[in-house]
Amino acid sequence: MSSQRAPTADLGDVAPARSRHQGRRSAVTLTSGLAVVGTADGDLQAFDVSADAGPLHRRWQYGTDGEPSVVAAVPFDGGVVTGERSVRGEIRCHDAGGDLRWRYETRGDLGEAQQETRFLLPFVASLATDGDRCYAAARRYERRTDDDGNDLRHFESVVYAFGADGSIDWTYRTDGSPISLDADKNRVAVAYNRCPGDHQHGLVVLDADDGDPRWMWDPGTDGQRRVGDVALLADGAVVSSHGDYRGYRLDSGGRERWRVPLATPTDVAGDTVYAYPNHVHATDEGAVFVTGNTYPEDGRETDARHPNEHTAAGVSLDGNRRWDAPVGGFASGLGTDGSLLAVPGAQNFRDRDADDHALRLFDVVDGPLDTLDTDGVVTAAAVSDGTAVAVEEPVVYHDEGHERGAYRLHRIETPVADAST
């Protein structure tokens, strides 16, 4: 595995990230030879990343009003669909030249923000497409108080199926918190990371044509935490469970075929700690799970580190562990293209080791392929047709006090896995 530098493009000014995570505020996708970046100020910037393009030249820019941040982006119908965290919770579709095709404000369904603070704003948590439709999962979180004065979490959420013209074919509404979507021509899988209300299923698989539930699954654990991510297979799905910190393979009706421990509670120097498996990608060759930060069972602070925190784990489709590799820090999402994964490594808020800032490339079967080191934290990535792109954001750690990195886009060519391994 090598480390490389790559062509970059400036994305403008942004307040640096801090020691604690502030949630997603950038997104990137690849479409029609362009890398389209959704920025923290809500603008879109498109750069030429075709093989013979050389330096990254900006092709177009689309500006927005208000104070949104673009947190999701997928290619669709020759253009791109983006989703915001904003007062309006907007979903927009642009053509390959940046012109607006259609837009939709999710706040009309989710309700207005309880307060205009970041985590209470309508949030387009995930986008997916099967080519014919674009699917979006949006949610709004608010705090409530019961009759006894207890603080309660409450979510309003909607899954949408959009046609190419922006028409809505169907919606699926719950009071759970959707975090991830995956879709094919027949199914839409929805992962819910928190279920504090009536909806008590961490995974719902919907019919792509009408939005009716085909089957549901839940890890069956206590508490609100349920599922972190889902990846569809031809004969079922693979999920990362927030409920019990394991990975599961399910058949086409939701029956469990196997489960593997990923970052289950472990005693480290007398402190019991765990880490959430936040992401999964699967093909007919295997699955890769990616875990996040260490947390203690008691309280929030700990000096212990779970041995499997910030780890990518490759697993065969019969449930055998193939390989493990570090991802450096908290990954806010994955870029995927067939057997390739691009994992953006952002803050490890406990250790704050800037030497770990990087984009890391993996193969489902063979594991680590390449690394792009960065000065700042990498917060979004995409990969397609031999090209990977990543968004770097500047960061200031509280115990250092100086700014590392910049707001910029990186492009690298992806390597090919060694067939002999």
TrEMBL record:
Q: What is this protein called?
A: Pyrrolo-quinoline quinone repeat domain-containing protein
Tell me one Pfam family matched here: PQQ_2
Q: Where is the Pyrrolo-quinoline quinone repeat domain?
A: 75-268
Q: Which domain of life is it from?
A: Archaea
User: Can you tell me which residues the record assigns to a coiled coil?
Assistant: none
Gene3D superfamilies associated with the record: YVTN repeat-like/Quinoprotein amine dehydrogenase
Q: Where is this region: Disordered?
A: 1-26
The UniProt entry, under InterPro entries, shows: PQQ_rpt_dom, Quinoprotein_ADH-like_sf, WD40/YVTN_repeat-like_dom_sf
Q: Specify the species.
A: Haloarcula quadrata
